[in-house]
Amino acid sequence: MNRIDVGGHPVHYVRAGRGEPIVFLHNGGSSHRIWTSQIEHFSKTHDVLALDLLGFGSSAKPHTDYTLPLYIEMLRDFVRQLDLNRITLVGNCMGSATALHYAMRHPEHVRCVVGVNVLSRATVLAGYAGALVRLAMRSPRAARVIGALPATGAMAKAIVAVQVKERIPPEILTHLRDRYRDPHQLRVLMSVAANMDDFAALDDVRGLPPGLRVLVLWGEDNRILPAKAGRKLCASLNPTRAITVPGGHLPMLEHPEVVNEAIASFLSPPITDYAAAP
After folding, report:
1. Do 242 and 216 contact (CB within 8 A), yes or no?
2. Full set of structural domains in the chain with CATH
């Protein structure tokens, strides 16, 4: 893997292919490997970069508050250091929120955004993790206590199981379970949960900025961020295009061909603009 330093902390990423840049941002708790199929597919035509976000994967996991502004700043530094321009941002969950907020603040650097299962306060509170997130938001001390709990194999299996509706490659399944057994992973996730108010900003957006092209994909069986909550968010955001895809929280692993085709179609001109709820 490649490495850069962001705010004094090492951030790791993979890079493959040549052409216009696409930056992939994973969801909390996973790593760049959820995009394995997309990296292989799009590196044939694009310069593909997939990060391990700060606190996850092979990147540093410092003892700090994991907030949305932290990730926006991390992405900004990443784009600057690698001198990227007119990038396509593709994110899942927390990665989607980071991508959208970055694009709204730095539209001059962004060609378009693909948001898979967009994290907002409203979308996460509607799902299986809602009660835990509410507790973390109310009590940072409780979040720290839960984040210090030992990560068991049974816990890791349960967390992954609620995210996937269908079979995924066994090596990726093992990798995801190993990620949740990382002794630092729960600490980072609970910090994100405690700072979930940061992600409420998307719930208040009434229409994305003119000229910002956004595709939203939502897993129809997502139990973490339910599709019903996604439809409500899209009705407010009014993205260029919104599509429901089969699968759960990780459709890029469950149905990679469907996700690849949706992204490729959006990137290929001409694009017919329309707004539709997932």
Report:
1. yes
2. 2-267 (3.40.50.1820)
